[in-house]
Amino acid sequence: MLIFACLQVWRPYFFLTDDNLTGGFPLFTEIGNHLLHGQSPFVSDYLFGGNYDLLRDPTFFGWHPVYLLVSLLAGTPFRLAMVDVDAFIMIMLATAGFVILAHYLRREMSLKLTDGWLMFYCMSFSYSMIVMTTGASWMAFLGNQSAMPWLALGILQKTWRRGIGLVTLFSLHHILGGHLAPLVSSSIFFSFFAGGISLYQKSTRPLAVWLGGYALAVLILLPLLVPLIHGFYASSRSQGVILEDMQANNIPALFFPTSLFCGMALWIFHPGELPHTTYILALGSCAAAWCLIPALVSRAKWRGLEMVCLGLMVFVAILIIRPLWITKLMVHLPLFKSMRWPFRELLQFQFFLHLFLLIRPPGLTIRTQRRIAVFSATVLVVPLFLFVYPPTFNHMQLDRKLLLTGELDSYWNRVRPLLKPTDRVAVLIPWKLYEDDRFQKPYSLLASFNYSALARVTNAAGYSPTVPKDQRYTKTNPGYYFGAYTPEQRSALLEERPDLKFLTLESLEPMKITLSSRDEPAIDLTPYLPTQKTAP
Fold first, then answer.
1. Rounded-to-integer distance, Cα 483 and Cα 58, Å
2. Looking at residues 473-490, what average pLDDT do you find?
3. What is the pLDDT at residue 281?
4. Is the dihedral of CA 67, 69, 72, 78 positive or negative?
5. Is the whole-model pTM more than 0.85?
6. DSSP assignment, residue 13?
């Protein structure tokens, strides 16, 4: 809790970056406003032409009670804190689960694990969640990670009732609060985990508890899952990602251990040189990474749970590296062929790594173990103080400033009266303007990404890779993944939707945005733009 508070002092609204800012926060706001006005939270008035069924889009599937409760902050002065409040609750849930799991294992396995080491591993796991969620900027990952300690605790229980109860409850949490891709992979890895425990215990109970509890959770949520599955298979993403695109995001085998042990330090010596996948893999490092050395050199007898965890770590590491033969296999498998990024497996790797460290008796002397732990934490934490911003794909500094200073609200309060309630806008961005420093464009001023929900302006598109084809407002696919079109697409859009209004980014220096339609002259929005102090 103290570290979380320090992060907020260092950078207020720490988690408002990239996808959390452009996708999650606007949706949170709209859902909260709907609930406060007694409307359905499952329909968006502003994305993809309006009246958009969110239940059919896996990108927006997150109907956890905590999400809905936190979204009510949309109508309060604390609305900017919605994402961080949600992150805080999920991280505290994960921390509590990891401590309880560690205490249970210490008692049941008679582990010689002090409170100090227990808390060190717990803090390392919790902080790896913070770094990973900020870096990947997808808040729903916390729903997946926070369920893992509790699911493992349920599988390891010695009584059927408690085991199935825990697995059912946190499978519900996992499904409702998690991201689809790690949900699928976590379900598979925990099946292997339960199967491995059953094998070594020579009992079917762990596997039966896992399968029974998970099946019960799926059965309870079936009314929500059916439209989700139907919507996914009606989307373009269900057809999969091309082999070249999937393979372009693999991780070099030799770089995996380097990034695991020295991930943060890489940014100091290679600023701006790391590709996206390498950058994200660096976020997979954790404060306890170097503690693997004492654990692996230990001469203690190997127990079943240790071997299962180590085997899963190796298996997940191979999937993260993703050699060509795995990619070729994935393109022929349902769901897996749609998973472009391999870093989602880092969520499982981080958990099984910390579980392994908990239970494996370390080698080397106690003094050496402590020195390694201090060095390991230093390698992760110290580089963070050398960066102006927290580690993330895209800081979105301009949009953050506009939102946090209130200038975004002022801008849209002046621009919105230029549009009729029935108007639909389409955003046009010339490629040459997008290509230069692409993540410092005034996206929130254009209502692209999902900012239209924040501006209360209905957009012809939105930000989702899993839009069901029958819910698309235009047959013309946006030229950009975040729901904007290129100016060359204007004529095609007008052909199918003659009444569309266009928000066009004309230039950046000076910043110029125009509002136009088929039959009316363009309106220069320069007088409505925020002050130049906020300009990029």
1. 17
2. 94
3. 59
4. negative
5. yes
6. S
